[in-house]
């Protein structure tokens, strides 16, 4: 009888700690780095906290893990332009098609024009 009780407690203990361990892995903890310096390159990423950051470096400065947004491949009907006049980009030619249907010379230029999403290559 004591053997079954001990075995039951062992099983319950194992399940409880396995569940707690999984929950800890899914938590997003911000660990800011106050000495972090980033470029203004626009290459948006989504942080584990659900916030969008202008590039991977900015997410890393806040101290969050991140992922790249999915490429939708279509022109978004609700595309909103929010230009940033202080934005600086290289002259690299790597065209992207903005969600507004306009071609930009690179992703940074699209980001500076305030375009929130784009696809690789020139617009058709």
Automatic annotation (TrEMBL):
Gene3D superfamilies: 3.30.60.30. Residues 1-18 form the signal peptide. Residues 23-72, 73-124 form the Kazal-like domain. SUPFAM superfamilies: Kazal-type serine protease inhibitors. The keyword Nucleotide-binding does not apply. Keywords: Signal. PANTHER family: GEO10195P1-RELATED, SERINE-TYPE ENDOPEPTIDASE INHIBITOR. This is Kazal-like domain-containing protein. It comes from Aureispira anguillae.
């Amino acid at each position: 009888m004591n053997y079954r009780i001990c075995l039951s407690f062992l099983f319950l203990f194992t399940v409880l700690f396995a569940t707690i361990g999984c929950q800890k892995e899914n938590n997003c903890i911000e660990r800011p780095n106050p000495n972090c310096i980033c470029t203004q390159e626009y290459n948006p990423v989504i942080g584990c906290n659900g916030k969008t950051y202008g590039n991977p470096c900015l997410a890393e400065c806040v101290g969050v893990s991140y992922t790249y947004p999915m490429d939708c491949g279509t022109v978004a009907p609700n595309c909103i332009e929010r230009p940033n006049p202080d934005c600086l980009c290289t002259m690299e030619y790597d065209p992207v098609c903005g969600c507004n249907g306009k071609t930009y010379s690179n992703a940074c230029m699209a980001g500076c024009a305030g375009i929130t999403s784009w696809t690789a290559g020139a617009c058709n």
